[in-house]
Amino acid sequence: MTSDVNEPQWLSQARSLSTAEVSDALDFFNLPGSALGVRPVAGPARIFGQAFTVRFAAIDHSRPGTVGDFLDRLKPGSVAVMDNGGRLDCTVWGGILSQLAAQKRIGGTVVNGVCRDTAEADEVGYPLYACGKFMRTGKDRVQVEAYEQPVMLGDVRVCQGDLVIGDADGVVVVPHLRMQEVLTRALETRVVEAQILDAALAGMPLAEARKKYGYHTLQRSATTLTA
């Protein structure tokens, strides 16, 4: 998702949100979204864009398929979300893809599994997130099973068009239909936390500042509080 001069203000402001801030907002709405085990492995530790999903499966030797001829399907700013079932023994993303994706201004790649050729991603400044690094190719081991279908990223379900945000702390996923309310909540919470910090820095005891601004209820929706 590239920045657009016509995009709503809440979305423009949300581009500066951290994964921690978004994770707290997801908690407020009782939504999953924090992808366990996925971390930055190369390039800038920042991703913000809508998911293009690709799911892999073990090679079908009777009808072998491809592992990486999908790049031209992606739009600038989108995020390639590759679900290789969390496999750590072979990769589905490497140097050629990183260099081409950088040229095409793809927003980044997130792999439920491992990737390789991370030095090439670093060289071209391409954001790459995964469960780790490993050099063995996925060719003749896995193949594309589906495009633009729901996939898993760590323990999080990702659908085509969901918002993917990544930073140094990891990756969060916001359902497409809940983007505005989740991101708006994250922005509102940021304001409250800034008030707490300002009050504490000015000399107010932290416990008092937290109580005054409702710190302990920031991640609790009305539904949670009454449950």
From TrEMBL:
N-terminal signal peptide: none
Superkingdom to which the source organism belongs: Bacteria
Pfam families: RraA-like
Cofactor: a divalent metal cation
Protein name per Swiss-Prot or TrEMBL: Putative 4-hydroxy-4-methyl-2-oxoglutarate aldolase
